[in-house]
């Protein structure tokens, strides 16, 4: 009888009224660090799975985290890879009973061409906080910005016919971390190439090489006017990470 009464009191504690429940949500780039303020953050949405009500939403803020801790220290069970400055979104949700939720992260929020949406589902219990590293969602990809040529740029054929036509792109990890020769994110291990189309048909492949931190360049000879499309990709075999950016431009007579 006493055991039954105790269980009833415990259950009543879970259901008697709304209790603030804290959930830390973090977005971490694949093979990289956390996504925070320096990149504009990742957008987090927590929903009640039953009725799709939004229980909390907001952006991750803070630093990308401790490089050594995240990228160099061997991982063991119970070892936190986040510190007090590491980017995250702390949700404070009032619930009066166990609630099944979905957590969706859209990242990087300010880089639409590189955005990925990643989600997970779990039970939240009233008053049972999920802190520390919290819920960490991995965001795959690279952030690629084609710098040359510009979108829908009109270029006279006579200005490029007798010299190589240059392509230029900025490539960074999803956390904004730098790509450089011999670095933690080593450009020598990455394949950065362009697939060039003219009037909708494949024309050529273009290899780009690192010329300075994050900056890749390549060139090709163009001999005919037309509508051109460049699909530029980065690929890292070890992590399976990929990224894309595209640009259309016009060469005219």
From TrEMBL:
Signal peptide residues on this chain, from the entry's feature table: 1-18
Domain of life: Bacteria
Keywords: Signal
Name the record gives this protein: DUF4198 domain-containing protein
Origin species: Pedobacter albus
Lineage: Bacteria, Pseudomonadati, Bacteroidota, Sphingobacteriia, Sphingobacteriales
